[in-house]
Design brief:
rod-shaped; two-stranded parallel sheet; 9-stranded mixed β-sheet
Length: about 325
């Protein structure tokens, strides 16, 4: 082997070695092995059920990875049904007090992770002055969860939980259907028997007959109402004619009253005035003489007129003419 070939092999070896170093550095930097090179602080969260959470499971804050689970969940001494999960959170991530820790799953395989949801009592953006919530200050220790703090966590319902709840709901639904079936059987045997159905049919037939009778009566009532309306219209016309007649009668009465007043005036004038008529009405002697003349004319006629009728004496006439005191 020549020196030129040996130099070429050395160069190739160095190139491969440098490439392996770069690949290893990238694996350490971006892989889980590189997590030991970052600074973290520990938090212990107690969950009622941490099924599916294993060591190195991811911890997310609002969907972004901020840490990992430090070790497998451990049972809490003296508290059956609770497990504690230690998590390593990046030191540059400050979690506000009151944040929620929940176990959730993602992907088709249902990989479990811990989701941190910030509390609602803080405001993270100062660009909106109208928001009256307290502005979160990461530098304020009272607003930040301190390292080594023990917290309470929650578990989001998974597929198994939903399945168990679905089984419970299906059992309740089956029991409800059984009760409904029993109720329908009781109704069918007790209420919807042949006798009650026959009575119900008779009731419907009676209702139909009553409805038909009401319809017929309604048609008759319509005729009666129309006849009554015609009678009312006729009565209105009769009242109008009667009103006109009464008006005419009132006018005639006024004329009769005028005639009677005129007659009374004439009688008064005849009794108290002067002339032939007042003399005939007021002087008894003249009246007797006129009666005697008429009697002679009837008896003898105008050509053979004679005064044969007895005339009244002046004394008697004067006595009858003068009223007694």
């Amino acid at each position: 082997m020549t020196n030129q070939q040996k130099g070429l092999e050395i160069k190739v070896g160095l190139f491969v070695f440098i490439g392996l170093i770069i690949i290893a550095f990238m694996a350490i930097q971006f892989g889980r092995v590189g997590q030991g090179l970052s600074e973290f602080y520990l938090l212990t969260v107690k969950f009622p059920n941490a099924s599916g959470i294993i060591k190195n499971a991811e911890v997310h804050l609002a969907g972004a990875k901020v840490g990992v689970v430090a070790e497998d969940p451990q049972a809490v001494s003296g508290q059956i049904g609770y497990v504690s999960v230690k998590m390593k959170i990046r030191s540059d991530i400050k979690l506000p007090v009151g944040s929620y820790f929940q176990i959730d799953s993602s992907g088709m395989m249902g990989e479990k992770f811990v989701e941190i949801t910030p509390a609602d009592g803080f405001k993270y953006d100062s660009s909106n002055p109208a928001d009256e919530r307290k502005l979160f200050d990461p530098a304020n220790p009272k607003m930040v969860i301190a390292p080594e703090t023990k917290l309470e966590g929650y578990q989001m319902p998974g597929l198994s939980d939903l399945t168990s709840k679905g089984d419970e709901n299906m059992k309740k639904l089956a029991a409800t259907l059984d009760e409904l079936k029993e109720t329908l059987q009781k109704i069918q045997s007790g209420v919807l028997n042949d006798e009650n159905i026959g009575n119900l049919k008779e009731s419907f037939a009676s209702i139909k007959t009553s409805t038909d009778n009401i319809a017929k009566a309604s048609s008759k009532i319509d005729g009666i109402v129309s006849g009554a309306q015609s009678a009312v219209d006729s009565a209105k016309e009769t009242f109008s004619e009667a009103k006109q007649t009464m008006t005419a009668i009132n006018g005639a009465t006024a004329d009769v009253r005028s005639v009677i007043a005129s007659s009374q005036t004439v009688l008064k004038a005849a009794q108290s005035g002067q002339g032939t008529v007042p003399m005939l009405l007021g002087n008894r002697e003249v009246a007797d003489n006129l009666r005697a003349v008429i009697a002679n004319v009837r008896k003898h006629g105008l050509l053979f007129y004679r005064d044969s009728a007895p005339a009244s004496t002046p004394v008697a006439a004067d006595a009858r003419a003068k009223p007694k005191n």
